[in-house]
Amino acid sequence: ILLDAELSVSAERVAGRGDAKDRFEQEQAAFFGRVRQTYLALADAEPERIKVVDAGRTLHEVRDAVQNILESFCNS
């Protein structure tokens, strides 16, 4: 399951935590953009293996989407 969100959403959530950024979180936006695009390309190439969830939605919506994926996986 790939939890995907726009870079601005991710940055806003990291900043909202109020904690100091770790070494990974201190990388530049271009780095995160490349990483995101690589994961999305993998998901596009293998849609049966990698399910993408829009993590820009509310926590409850993301949780429900993940739960639906897990339930469909367990029932197949």
Could you characterize the architecture of this molecule?
The protein is mainly alpha-helical and 76 residues long. 58% of the residues lie in helices and 8% in strands. It has 3 helices and 2 strands. The chain has helices at 7-17, 29-45, 59-74; strands spanning 2-4, 52-54. Strands 1-2 form a two-stranded parallel sheet. The longest helix is centred in the middle third of the chain and has 17 residues, at 29-45. It is globular. The model has no long low-confidence stretch (mean pLDDT 90).
Summarize this structure as a short list of keywords or feature phrases:
76 residues, mainly alpha, two-stranded parallel sheet, 3 helices
Strand content: 5-15%
Q: Classify the helix fraction into a percent range.
A: 55-70%
List low-confidence stretches: none
Number of helices: 3
Q: If strands are numbered along the chain, what order do they take across the biggest sheet?
A: 1-2
* Gyration radius from CA atoms, angstroms: 14 Å
Kindly state the number of beta strands: 2
Largest sheet: 2 strands, parallel
Terminal Cα separation, in Å? 16 Å
Average residue-wise pLDDT: 90
Would you spell out the secondary-structure blueprint of this structure?
Blueprint: E1 2-4, H1 7-17, H2 29-45, E2 52-54, H3 59-74
Parallel strand pairs: 1-2
In brief, what are we looking at here?
The protein has 76 residues and is mainly alpha-helical.
